[in-house]
Write a structure and sequence with these properties.
Radius of gyration: 15 Å
Strand content: 35-45%
CATH architecture: 3-Layer(bba) Sandwich
Distance between the termini: 5 Å
CATH superfamily: D-tyrosyl-tRNA(Tyr) deacylase
Number of helices: 2
Helix content: 10-25%
CATH class: Alpha Beta
């Protein structure tokens, strides 16, 4: 499982010209699901995502999490994060979780995220999405389990 997290001032996801998810300050989470990921993997990733310190404290150091600042979380599925890119000039997706399984695990991830954090929005699994964001910093981290 991979989660590319970006500290944002704002972010939104549009599908077919309609906004389906939007946050103000917080984090955009692009989530890639790999073969072998399961509910236990989801719980470990959410522990990390919600506690990861990427917001400034009073001294200007990155010591606060999205939970600490009560920021928004925008979750977007992105299977291309599971691509193999070491060889050649074309990505391979043999390590990506198959779509039916991935959708079920993504839905579980979103459900658990909403149970654990108050301000959550999401993209639409498998849709052609347009993601707009104002990356704050820029601050971006790749979390992998």
């Amino acid at each position: 499982m991979k989660a590319l997290i970006q500290r944002v001032r704002s972010a939104r996801v549009d599908v077919a010209g309609e906004t389906v998810g939007k946050i103000d300050g917080g984090i955009l989470v692009l989530l890639g699901l790999d073969k072998g990921d399961d509910k236990a993997t989801v719980e470990r990733m959410l522990d990390k995502v919600l506690a990861y310190r990427l917001f400034a404290d009073a001294q200007g150091r990155m010591n606060c999490s999205v939970t600490d600042i009560n920021g928004g979380v925008l979750l977007v599925s992105q299977f291309t994060l599971s691509a193999g890119t070491r060889k050649g000039l074309r990505p391979g997706f043999s390590s990506a979780m198959p779509p039916v399984e991935a959708e079920q695990l993504y839905d579980f991830t979103l459900q658990r995220l909403r149970q654990r954090h108050a301000r959550v929005a999401a993209g639409a699994f498998g849709a052609d999405m347009q993601v707009s964001l104002c990356n704050d910093g820029p601050v971006t981290f790749m979390l992998e389990l």
